[in-house]
Please model this.
Amino acid sequence: MEKPRLRYRRVLIKLSGEALQGDQSYGLSPAFLEQIAKEFKEICELGVQAAVAVGGGNIFRGMKASADGMDRAQADYMGMLATVINALALQDALERQDVPSRVMSAIEIHQVAEPYIRRRAIRHLEKGRVVIFAAGTGNPYFTTDTAAALRAAEINADVILKATKVPGVYDRDPVLYPDAVKFQRLSYMEVINKQLKVMDSTAASLCMDNCIPLIVFDVFEKGNMRRAIMGEDIGTLVGEFKSVKP
Model:
């Protein structure tokens, strides 16, 4: 049987720590890990080359600790270690679904992860392995959104898929404001100027400068990852478009 035509063949999924905790208040959700691993298996069987940049907010938030008085660089390094924990958990879930994967860390931890090397990461993708990027950029003062944008540019990803708890980008927080209106399309300049909190300004500028589109979608609705890759109109598409209203 002929495989369906893909809109995007090489993708980077930005998976937040909040998503990995599922409906729990802290830590990792085994049910969500199993669900997301099955969705990765599905897209890999379609021939998609998939990379993942994981956050660590379900375990430790460097910026919050810094606001509470901790040294910012120290707090950020602790946050990077939290992403390594999440990356290993995701790798375990993937391999239980028979999906080959590799964890590549920007901080060298040879016992549990490969060091990040761009050409090696691309080779893993070409061999059909899911590559999980951990430890952000390896530097303090940079978010995991910026790390996702950087890695997407380095591996020549066709798109960044930002997996969130909401169905897209809204004019205000839909959790607090039930009448919030969802954007279908946005330009990166609108994201920056309107301070929409899709991603930080450094990450948005990196995507804009390298012409990398971004799709923000609800990861908890099963099948959404596949739909986004196939080019279905879900979530919010961020790229270089003319100004639009919600």
